[in-house]
Amino acid sequence: CALPISGEGQLSLFPPEPAPDPLLCWLWLAGTLGAGSLRAGAVLDAFGGAQEAWEARDTDAFAAAVGPAAAQRACLPDNTPVHYSAFARRCAARRIRILTYDDPDYPLAFSRIPDMPLVLYCTGDPRWLNEPAAVGMVGTRRPTEYGLRAAADIGKGLARAGAIIVSGLADGLDSAGHRAAVGENCPTIAVMGVPIDRTYPAANRELRRAISDYLRQFRGMNVDSGQIIVGAGTEFLYSLLIQLLGREKCYAVEDPGYSKIAEIYRSHQVNLRQVGLDEKGLSTRLLRRQEADI
């Protein structure tokens, strides 16, 4: 058998160190550069990708591309791609997709700016991020009634015309734009200024925690507060639920029950199963027979 030979031409008794996972390399590079770094483009121009940058972290070329502070962080013993493994697992457990710069779904428009974010975190269907007909709708968090009506009318018109409404998921006109899109059964994109698993607005944090506690104590449901969506309007929330979970799922509703929910599901053309009740509410026995996903 052959023995590995090192770069100096000497025999090595040890196999070469395996390359780190590419996803972890991107997380490492993004963390090393820091949020809002203006050097991401220069690093990609110099090395092409995160794994190549990791392998070159001890070189003068790397230090020149990232700057002195990031070069120092890159060589810290507790800053390696492997150290991001637990973080990546937490994202996967929460169904948060990590979009790296080399991911086919990464927004192409971001690649044209020098300070592009090297990783994005998203839920839902990322293919809409590269739709050409994207229109931003932003505005005050304290709109007048006229402002809300105008935002709703404009949003509905844009959605019906095939535009993808992009906003910030804030109170006020941002939310009006998102609701208009969802009301028309159209996709919408929220660009959040906070971590994707953080409650926003912050005023909803205690409400979500209280709902989680109630479901655990009185309904026997172990639901994390991060899984609870707080919003205004049944139609908006159930439409949002379908967009998040997918139209290919089979949804169950109680029968008899609130007929509006079944109407919303039918308007989205999802597979709907109606389940009868027993003395305790929705019959779990009948529910199992229906084999519904949601």
Write structural notes for this entry:
With 294 residues, this protein is α/β, with parallel strands linked by helices. It contains twelve helices and nine strands. It has helices spanning 22-33, 40-47, 50-55, 60-66, 68-74, 85-93, 145-160, 173-183, 204-218, 234-245, 259-267, 284-290, and strands at 97-100, 119-122, 134-136, 164-167, 188-190, 250-254, 271-275, 277-278, 281-282. The strands form four sheets. Strands 3-4-5 form a three-stranded parallel β-sheet, with helices on one face. The chain has a two-stranded antiparallel sheet with strand order 1-2.
Summarize it.
With 294 residues, the chain is an alpha/beta fold. The protein has helices at residues 22-33, 40-47, 50-55, 60-66, 68-74, 85-93, 145-160, 173-183, 204-218, 234-245, 259-267, 284-290; strands at residues 97-100, 119-122, 134-136, 164-167, 188-190, 250-254, 271-275, 277-278, 281-282.
Category by helix and strand content: alpha/beta
The backbone outline, from C-alpha atoms, is globular
Percent strand equals: 5-15%
**What is the H/E string?**
HHHHHHEEEHEHEHHEHEEEH
Strand count, sense and barrel status of the largest sheet are: 3 strands, parallel
Please give the order of strands in the largest beta sheet. 3-4-5
Overall mean pLDDT:
81
Count of beta strands: 9
End-to-end Cα distance: 56 Å
How much helix is in the residues? Answer: 40-55%
Low-confidence stretches: 1-9
**What is the radius of gyration computed over CA atoms, rounded to a whole number of angstroms?**
24 Å
Total helical segments: 12
